[in-house]
Write a structure and sequence with these properties.
With 333 residues, the chain is α/β, with parallel strands linked by helices. Among the domains are: 115-183, Ubiquitin-like (UB roll); 186-324, 3-Layer(aba) Sandwich (Rossmann fold), CATH 3.40.50.11690. It contains 10 helices and 12 strands. The chain has helices at 11-19, 63-69, 72-93, 95-103, 106-113, 131-138, 151-159, 229-238, 274-288, 312-324; strands at 120-124, 164-172, 176-183, 186-192, 195-200, 205-208, 219-221, 246-252, 256-261, 266-268, 295-299, 307-310. The strands form 2 sheets. Strands 6-5-4-7-8-9-10-11-12 form a 9-stranded mixed beta sheet. Helix 8 packs parallel to helix 9 (274-288). The radius of gyration is 51 Å and the shape is rod-shaped.
Length: 333
């Protein structure tokens, strides 16, 4: 002990007591690790989860990390810019549009590969139109996919056809399309201002006449005759056996009809009760073959009277016959 009552021990002995049999713990190193023999530096195993302090000077071999560290974001943005520029040039040059026209849109191509092509199309409700006309108007072809087909647009395109009143488009996944159309019924041909049109029973103009497909339909003439085509059809129904001889119906003053027969004779009908007068005409012709005589017109506008106008030759012959006929003497002669 020293003079102060403290026990004096050697440094070597004190160090041994401090360490004893326990393992040495280094700052930042977990227990259980020992320094390498013959070395004063700690070398942790490669599997240690604790990285060494300080910034590592080793170079990484990860290309993405290298991109990030060396301005890779700028390079990526440059690549995107070049791609966008190329796409813009293709669009401006027409190459993209030509590709889509020939093969379909990229979305349709992907959808078809994914299992949504259009392999079957069912069309119903056809009367005057055929399947080729429907498909052409609908603009549906193998380039389309069922997934991205716009059913509303197909319906609008079909309704633009004058003969189609309405259409229902149904997509049955994965690959079937159903088109049901409701066609307008063409009932008559309408002539106005030299133009010939096909009209439905409600007077709607369906289309112009482009061929002889509807040449056998009833024929109406005059301003507003299309809107009153139903009246004319009723007159035809009343004509019975004479129906086939009625070549046209002429609407006069938007009020009444005049029938033009196949031999040019015109039959004037009243504003009301026209069907009854047509039935009367049928009876007269059955009795006297009125329509086969040399007449120009027959006026049936008065219910109790029939006025017949003869042709010029027939009128001259009748006048001559009346002139030659002796006059009857009075009772006092």
């Amino acid at each position: 002990m020293d003079g102060g009552g403290r026990l004096l021990r050697s440094l070597t002995e004190a160090g041994s007591a401090l360490v004893g049999s326990s393992r040495l713990r280094f700052a930042g190193v977990p227990g259980g690790f020992e320094p390498s023999r013959g070395s004063q530096d700690y070398a942790p195993p490669r599997s240690t989860p604790y990285p060494p302090r300080g910034r590592s000077k080793r170079r990484t071999s990860d290309p993405m990390l290298l991109l990030t560290r060396r301005g890779g974001v700028g390079v990526a943005l440059s690549l995107v810019l070049f791609a966008a520029t190329g796409l813009f040039g293709a669009v401006r040059g027409g190459q993209y549009a030509a590709y889509v026209e020939a093969n379909g849109s990229p979305f349709d191509l992907v959808a078809k590969v994914a299992g949504f092509p259009i392999n079957a199309i069912t069309i119903s409700g056809l009367k005057e139109l055929d399947q080729h006309e429907i498909l052409k108007a609908a603009a549906v072809d193998p380039k389309n996919s069922l997934l991205f087909l716009d059913a509303a647009s197909v319906r609008d395109r079909l309704k633009a056809l004058p003969l189609i009143k309405d259409a229902v488009i149904t997509k049955l996944f994965p690959d079937r399309l159903m088109i049901a159309v409701d066609e307008r019924d063409p009932v008559a041909l309408w002539q106005k201002d030299g133009q010939l049109s096909i009209v439905s029973n409600d007077g709607t103009v369906i289309d112009g006449v482009h061929d002889d497909r509807f040449i056998g339909l009833p024929f109406v003439v005059g301003q507003g005759a299309n809107a009153k085509v139903g009246q004319f059809l009723a007159l035809l129904d009343a004509a019975g056996d004479l129906r086939g001889r009625i070549a046209a119906g002429i609407l006069v003053g938007d009020r009444r009809w005049t029938l033009r027969m196949d031999n040019g004779v015109e039959v004037a009908l009243p504003e009301t009760g026209g069907a009854e007068q047509v039935a009367r005409l049928v009876a007269l012709d059955g009795q006297s073959k009125l329509l086969d005589k040399d007449v120009v017109s027959v006026d049936l506008r008065r219910p109790t009277r029939v006025t017949v106008r003869l042709s010029a030759d027939a009128a001259a012959a009748r006048a001559e016959a009346l002139a030659k006929k002796p006059k009857s003497k009075g009772p006092h002669e």
